[in-house]
Design goal:
295 residues; mainly alpha
């Protein structure tokens, strides 16, 4: 559920931050955009990769697939969740980055972004139906093409926001109600696994939520702008990619010296959470910023 929101939000911010820039539409521009984005991701990805490479001793093919960020293209959960399980997100996101210049140009030239958004949604539903009824062998949750559609929907939400933000007058009450309804829908759908198209419905709810958040009028969006939430938002990628390694380290290594950590789940989670926040801060201070300065 949360990952779907981040793909939509990533697409929204990518388009919103580039709307006044000249984006070249070419393979060279795509590779350049990917390289620019990977600068801040590679050290983080490498930490999780090396940790689980040494810990799990995978097959050579699995190690190579993860090294080149190709695991999300597999329909086998032993592949796309191999090594640092959450890293499939980066593998799918890199594909979105590669497509960004092309999608950006199409959206910029689209006269009716709402119809474009509807078309992408229909394609998304069609893929979901193909998997459900025709037994198409892809893992919807991680498959880069599916996630690129979610990313594109986020970009189109940004285009719609820029087009209608002055025309739509949302007050605090209306914005708050829409935010809460969207959040409630995401939570309910996320817990309703019997609904065949719940994944698509969740993405639609995420699009609505991101659109309303963009106005920054509701109580939820205002609460998230507080300093504490802003700090956690700044480390959300590190938090997501390192959490599996930290949980493993807490249980396998620290648990050897403190058996209570293995025996008590609450204590293990609390210790892991503290270590995770500290690890994210250390990574940003000692690795991410120095690495970015050298490039």
């Amino acid at each position: 559920v949360g990952v779907g929101f981040f793909f939509v939000a990533a697409g929204f911010f990518a388009y919103y931050s580039s709307v006044n820039k000249t984006i070249e539409c070419s393979l060279k521009a795509s590779f350049s955009y990917v390289a620019k984005k990977l600068v801040s991701i590679l050290p983080l990805y490498g930490i999780g990769y090396l940790y689980f490479l040494l810990l799990s001793k995978p097959t050579f093919s699995t190690a190579i697939i993860n090294l080149f960020m190709l695991q999300a293209w597999s329909s086998d959960d032993r592949i796309y969740f191999s090594l640092n399980g959450p890293s499939w997100y980066i593998a799918a996101l890199v594909f979105c980055y590669f497509l960004f210049p092309f999608i950006y140009k199409i959206i910029k030239s689209a006269k009716r972004p709402a119809l474009f958004l509807l078309a992408i949604l229909i394609i998304r539903v069609g893929i979901e139906a193909a998997v459900s009824f025709a037994h198409l062998s892809i893992a919807l949750h991680v498959f880069p093409i599916v996630r690129a559609l979610d990313y594109t929907m986020g970009m189109l939400v940004a285009a719609l926001f820029l087009k209608y933000r002055n025309a739509l007058k949302l007050n605090t009450l209306i914005a708050s109600v829409l935010e809460l309804l969207s959040l409630a829908s995401i939570i309910i759908l996320g817990n309703n696994l019997t609904f065949r198209f719940n994944a698509v419905a969740i993405i639609v709810a995420c699009c609505v939520l991101v659109f309303i958040f963009a106005f920054d009028k509701g109580i939820v969006s205002k609460a998230l702008s507080f300093r504490l939430f802003d700090m956690f938002y700044s480390i959300q990628l590190e938090f997501y990619l390192l959490h599996s390694a930290v949980l493993s380290f807490t249980y396998s290594v620290i648990g050897l010296f403190l058996p209570l950590i293995k025996e008590n789940v609450s204590i293990r989670v609390a210790v892991s959470y503290i270590l995770l926040v500290v690890s994210c801060a250390i990574y940003r201070l000692l690795l991410k910023k120095p690495f970015e300065k050298t490039l």
